[in-house]
# Entry
Amino acid sequence: MEIHESEARLKKEISFLGLVAVFVGMNIGGALFSLTIVAADITGPSLPIAMIMASIPSLLALVPYSMFSTAYPTTSATYRYCQLLNPQLAFIAMFTLLLCMLVGAQPLFAMTFGQYFDDLFAADINPAVVGVIVLAVFYVVNLLGIKFTAQLQTILFIVMMAALILYVVLGVPHVRVENFTPMFPNGVGKFIAATGMLFTFCAGGLFAVDLGGEVIDGSRRYKRALVTGMGIVVGIYLLIHIVTVGAERWDALKAKGTLTTVAGNFMSPGLVDFFIIGGALVACATTINIIFTVISRGFVVISGEKIFPDFMGKVGEKSGTPYWGLTFIFIVCAASLLILASIGQKPVTIFGAMTNFGLIFPITVVCLAGAIVPFKMNAIYEKSRFKISKRLVAAVSWTAVILNTAIFLLLCMLMISIKLHLTVIMFFVFMAISALYYYGRKMVLKKRGIKMPGRPMFK
# Structure
């Protein structure tokens, strides 16, 4: 696999703990505090069960992701593993993800940060404006380099875990069995549809593989980090959701708006403030921080392949960070947040849907690669530290593909049913833009005598 000049400047400074913090931070982040109430309003007291169902595709996806990442840890790994299947599909999947992150995930978590910031100070503060400020802060953090970014991520991870554990420990005694009835107040259909909204809760961390080029001894670290991180994520989510719908009637959650008011049922004012700061604000911050990091690395790789202009992936010699890519991300995310927050009737739901649509696509392609590539490229399977039979890898990967497809369709149906069909249209428009850009760029490069990249050849 060819390593381009800018990519070679990235530094291997992420430890095992840092990698786990990245994985957990990309999962237990803004989604927990922004989408839990939305999902509870859809599915009611069955929220914990919906969470378990939504986690199954991501748990299955650990198999192909572990196989690839322990064989060849690399920068922008999701894109490169997709390339093993089909280079054109890989770019379309990753560019669609990029667009969904820029208008979905980052605005979602920044908006949520602003909402909880408003809760903390009980002031009439515009959450979108606060969101832009926090985006600017973590834009600067990422400009300072991966070592500082990873160290800050680890510290924030520890603070966040303390706040979430406090919520669970103090909340469990207040859980009431009667709050879990009726289990499916909106019907089984809405319960199943809610799994689509919850997909991002466990799926985001899989993109920790995209920092493989900066992980110390990546092939060994990923074998333990992915499983450890997923175990922490699923366990914490399940407990938090049990407390959320068990300590408060589900039909009262929507009116309360945030988890802060639920925490107020069993926490003192001082502890509620700690939960807002250490839980909600830090959770959003960890996700915003690492999304900046991961997406900008994608610019480095794709620019190195000439698909994006060279300057988009340029890495500073001293900082080791792709500063132009980070700048582009910040500008587009800030603009998306301000525009969609001002015109959207349900901005959080819109942002959440776009995030889920964006994640499902490339994860499904990686799983498809996991089902097919080992039989065509035996060297990858042989080098992997994750040793199970090819047939089992294929069976698990195909199952994940089928479940991901089902969740995608359910999410589409849910968005249409609540009159947010615009999100479905936007996703397919993003796919079309990605395809048109790829083939347009291919024609431009062909005229210059430059060949588009094919499947990566790992050495």
